[in-house]
From TrEMBL, chain B:
Protein's name in the database: O-acetylhomoserine sulfhydrylase
Species the sequence originates in: Bradyrhizobium stylosanthis
Family listed: Belongs to the trans-sulfuration enzymes family.
UniProt-listed PROSITE patterns: CYS_MET_METAB_PP
Superkingdom of origin: Bacteria
UniProt keywords, alphabetically: Pyridoxal phosphate, Transferase
GO biological process: cysteine biosynthetic process from serine; L-homocysteine biosynthetic process; transsulfuration
Cofactor needs: pyridoxal 5'-phosphate
InterPro entries on file: Cys/Met-Metab_PyrdxlP-dep_enz (IPR000277), Cys_met_metab_PP (IPR054542), OAc-hSer/O-AcSer_sulfhydrylase (IPR006235), PyrdxlP-dep_Trfase (IPR015424), PyrdxlP-dep_Trfase_major (IPR015421), PyrdxlP-dep_Trfase_small (IPR015422)
Taxonomic classification: Bacteria, Pseudomonadati, Pseudomonadota, Alphaproteobacteria, Hyphomicrobiales
GO molecular function: cysteine synthase activity; O-acetylhomoserine aminocarboxypropyltransferase activity; pyridoxal phosphate binding
Residues with N6-(pyridoxal phosphate)lysine modification: K209
Gene Ontology cellular component list: cytoplasm
Amino acid sequence: MNHDAYPDNYIRGILNSVKSIAMVGASPQNVRPSYFAFKYLAQRGYDMIPINPGHVGKDLLGKPFVASLSDIGRPIDMIDIFRNSSHIMPVVEEALTLDPLPKVIWMQLGARDDAAAAKAESVGIKVVMNRCPKIEYGRLSSEISWMGVNSRTLSSKRAPAPTQGMRLSLNRMSVGGGDTAASDRAAKNKTEQS
Amino acid sequence: MSDRLPGFSTLAVHAGAQPDPTTGARATPIYQTTSFVFNDADHAASLFGLQAFGNIYTRIGNPTNAVLEERVAALEGGTAALAVASGHAAQVVILQQLLQPGDEFIAARKLYGGSINQFTHAFKSFGWNVVWADPDDISSFERAVTPRTKAIFIESIANPAGSITDIEAISTVARKAGVPLIVDNTLASPYLIRPIDHGADIVVHSLTKFLGGHGNSLGGIIVDAGTFDWSTGGKYPMLSEPRPEYHGIRLQETFGNFAFAIACRVLGLRDLGPALSPFNAFMILTGIETLPLRMQKHCDNAKAVAEFLAGHPAVASVSYAGLASDKYNQLARKYAPKGAGAVFTFSLKGGYDAGVNLVSKLQLFSHLANVGDTRSLVIHPASTTHSQLDDAAKVKSGAGPDVVRLSIGIEDKEDLIADLEQALSA
């Protein structure tokens, strides 16, 4: 997989197929990006599991915090990692000890570890880096268009008005896939420089 | 679901719009409302805290305006956009995110006269200091860079003479200086030039001109290219630092490659207030649907008129980059191969008096201070749009006393030429 620019179908396939998402680094602070994403994905019907050893015994929007991936105790479809690039590898290594393996490992906006990605991909796990599943879900459903964001999708179909807990259709026509060319190039240049 | 890229005309008609979820209306409805009900208290809190996508109040966002924003972002190849009340408002909102009092920005000397005034006087009173550079001398931009420089501002096709700016060369200077390049793409429209493809980080438009295209609605828009890394060195605290306005959110961290557009919305538009009327957004959207058709006709007509003027004995010179003899023709071929725009200047051998006489004799051309209308327009910049500049600055910006500016419309070119011919010989 080329991790500089993902085809929309790759992202769409992941978001359409996963049901449970363990979020590593989920924060109870309501101004942190992980809180935003956790809440949004829960509202869109995903089975969310917050992972944060510092908050065990408490819950996040009604879901009890779990100390680590190994402590979840049931199969999970996707791991969403809210940690800096330098803390990705140990999380991926722990994920690779799970049985069954997760289907997807997703690293948040700003997080990228190509070696960890290669390790996960070598055992058949799909990897997404430097993206936010909330933004991608909002983009492919065009819900993010409320914010003037270029969803890079088109549709001539009438969509239902979204309500609480409703899964939205992500099957709109893509216009080019991945990010816009210019922002892709900028992200690639940044990766090459670092 | 194939990932193929539709053409420009398809995007001009479809991007951002889909049938209304409630009524099925196919044209984008005018959501003429100030505010939007919340589902419940939690939904309200989520929207105010930027945690959920949705509508609160039309000064922050509106569904009609959002269609316009996504459409222009798609046409320009940006990640997101924000529509505001005018091009001037867009410029205030952009620089508010980038500059603190005492900071500097470099601007090309060849700009719309209103921008020169805004930068020189209004922005100076905010402590935002403009440093002028010459778009015909790229090294003048390099020399103008200081540790306080926060942005570079140019026009792709520059008012009033329709000169073409070497966007790539100036973007190289901006990258080296570690500052974003802002390109005013009003006179080109994305149909002729897409500045992001040439290194622009932010694109700004007066929607009032070719995008709206019918001379009936004011508007401005800011497009985020998603290319600039705002996080380095705390140079852009509106984007990189925790914002007290939102309980400590860091916008770049939260919104990634469209953080600048979000900053413009939630820190700029929200707090400064220059919201675009949804009715204007609707009018401009309708205009954009025919942008490719109109823009090509504007350019074809402009070239024919420029060629006619260049061969007329009463005309001293014509500045139109679409003419093979023009000093900007090479740049026009590179940046605007479909046409060099429809705004240009010429000067008359009879000087100022001949210009005044010409304007008074024209029957089809309207004498007014606008460009980018379906109708052909004429103005004498030295006494109007550029009148607040001193004489030297007028000449430097291409608006000397003998200069007449035309904005060529989409009428039949034979009629435009006949009108000019009768006025020049009268």
